[in-house]
Amino acid sequence: MFLTNIAYAADHGHSAPLFHIGPLEVTSEITTMWAVMALILIVSFLGTRNMKRIPSGIQNVLEMGIEMYENFWTDILGKKRTRELMPFLATFFILILCSNYSGLLPLAGTLPGLKPPTSNVSTTAGLAIVVFFLVLYYNLKVQGPIGYIKHLIGPMPAISFLMLPLNIVEQFTRPLSLALRLYGSVYGEEMVVASLAALCPLVLPLTMQVMGILFGAIQAFVFTLLASIYLEEATAVHH
Amino acid sequence: MYLDINPSTVIFAIINFCILVVGLKVFLYKPVCNMLDSRKEEVANNLNSAEEAKLEAQKLKDEYAAQLQNARSEAQDIINQAAKIGEQTKADIVNEAREEAARLTAKAQADIAREKTEALNEIRNEIADLAVLAAAKVVGKTIDVADHQNMVNDFVKEVGEAK
């Protein structure tokens, strides 16, 4: 019984497509992601639809959140770059946080169409690829192609034959680590919850789910923080 | 074990993320940032205008205090002047009254003197008449009234001078 449940949960780690849009498969992770996105957009729309000088309700919460983000990233990136990069960074955070928390919903992972998007390596890889291209774009934009190559060669030309491959590999390992860290953490937590639910479905999974509230926030924060540090490096003006 | 990457999911994740970035930019970051900025600006403006208003008020207050001081000293001047004028008027009135009194006294004395002279003359005439009458009675004949009157007048004059 226990083993079959584990196997079931593991099997659903990589879910089968629900339906197709053209050549693309739509999996439970993607439908959940759509629901999460819709929720985020609806809340944002409601909160900013009728903005008032003296905020109240959702507007107050949103303003506080945005201001908090802004203050936090201003410390890392400075005011100007924060304004430019915040849409990406804040979206990473909000999307990953809500995706992680979607795993706390009852039947998440077992109900078709409801599965935390971040528990699948394909989704986290997609997000990491966005980070990779953002970093690449800002590197090329701020430092120029030649400056970027110089940056990859490193400050000491004598050991560039060593540094260049290392630096190039680093450009790829960073997003890879982002994707795997997030996926592993969320997927692992889902697995533990599923295992505990198999042992005793009543109270036992709750302990892990409470931890999941904490882990979900931490993982979203770590992903965003690392992305912002990579982007900070990419947009730093070297003298 | 290998990682089972589903390319469709990867592509969807990227597309979803891009859609969400655009959507949140439109619905969340732009309006909220604009609101925060405009509010910040408004607060700064309010503080500046409050500072200006305070300075203005201080200026007005100083001005009014100066004006009040001026008004006070002016009032004091007016009071002093009025007191001086009052003093002057009092002295004038008193002097005038004194002069008037002196004039009246002099006039009264002159009147008295005149009356006295008149009365004396009248008495003199009366006495002369009486003397003529008495003399006529005594002499038994009538003398010329005019001559007699002259005689009596001369006599009275002499008596008066002898006195």
Q: Unreliable segments of chain B (pLDDT under 50, ≥5 consecutive)?
A: none
Please indicate the count of domains of chain B: 1
Radius of gyration of chain B: 62 Å
* Secondary-structure element series of chain A: HEEHHHHHH
The span between the termini of chain A is 64 Å
**Largest beta-sheet details of chain B:** none
Task: Give the topology, please.
The complex is a heterodimer of chains A (239) and B (163).
Chain A: H1 2-11, E1 19-21, E2 24-26, H2 28-48, H3 57-77, H4 79-102, H5 121-153, H6 160-199, H7 204-235
Antiparallel strand pairs in A: 1-2
Helix pairs in contact in A: 1-6, 2-3, 2-4, 3-4, 4-7, 5-6, 5-7, 6-7
Chain B: H1 7-139, H2 145-162
Helix pairs in contact in B: 1-2
Describe this structure in words.
The complex is a heterodimer of chains A (239) and B (163). Chain A has helices at residues 2-11, 28-48, 57-77, 79-102, 121-153, 160-199, 204-235; strands at 19-21, 24-26. Chain A is mainly α and 239 residues long. Chain A has one domain. In chain A, a hairpin with a 2-residue loop joins strand 1 and strand 2 (24-26). In chain A, helix 5 (121-153) packs parallel to helix 7 (204-235) and helix 6 (160-199) runs antiparallel to helix 7. The longest helix of chain A has 40 residues, at 160-199. Chain A is globular. Chain B has 163 residues and is mostly helical. Chain B has one domain. Helix content of chain B is 93%, strand content 0%. Chain B is built from two helices and no strands. Chain B has helices at residues 7-139, 145-162. Chain B is rod-shaped. The model of chain B has no long low-confidence stretch (mean pLDDT 89). The A-B interface holds A 14, 17, 23-27, 29-30, 33-34, 37, 40-41, 44-45, 47-48, 51, 53, 55, 62-63, 66-67, 70, 83, 86-88, 90-92, 94-95, 117, 120-127, 129-130 and B 3-14, 16-21, 23-25, 27-29, 31-33, 35-36, 39, 42.
